[in-house]
């Protein structure tokens, strides 16, 4: 059975993390198969000139921002203490539980906002690098046309 790496520092993995993409979505944007993305990321295959040219608009904002992986926040939960059966302690426990739940939900929002801001900043550059969409009357059945239709949608 295949084993998946938890963390990769390749350029493709950094692009996926920076823009919040899956490997499948990156493969569609680059016009290659998801298997080739995995091989490129692991170093089993080298980037071709064509793939490097398609990847360049994604790398420019990423390298300018010099993104470093964020370290996880330390656990700030107080150590458990003796609990009384009184209603005040039950209410306190319920409030602490709700606060933890809200903190858990809140932890992803800054990262999502950062990804959205990166996309907003990079969108003009990415759209300028794309060829114009094919005319509505013509629909060539090529892999490149399918990729462009996905990108322009």
UniProtKB/TrEMBL annotation:
Sorted alphabetically, which SMART domains does this protein's record hold? HTH_XRE
Listed GO MF terms: DNA binding
Annotated HTH cro/C1-type domain ranges read 11-65
The record's InterPro entries line, in alphabetical order, gives: Cro/C1-type_HTH, Lambda_DNA-bd_dom_sf
> Region Disordered: what ranges?
67-87
Stretches of Pro residues bias are at 71-82
Pfam families assigned: HTH_3
Q: Please identify the protein, giving its name as recorded.
A: Helix-turn-helix domain-containing protein
Identify the species of origin. Answer: Hymenobacter cyanobacteriorum
Q: What is the lineage of its organism?
A: Bacteria, Pseudomonadati, Bacteroidota, Cytophagia, Cytophagales
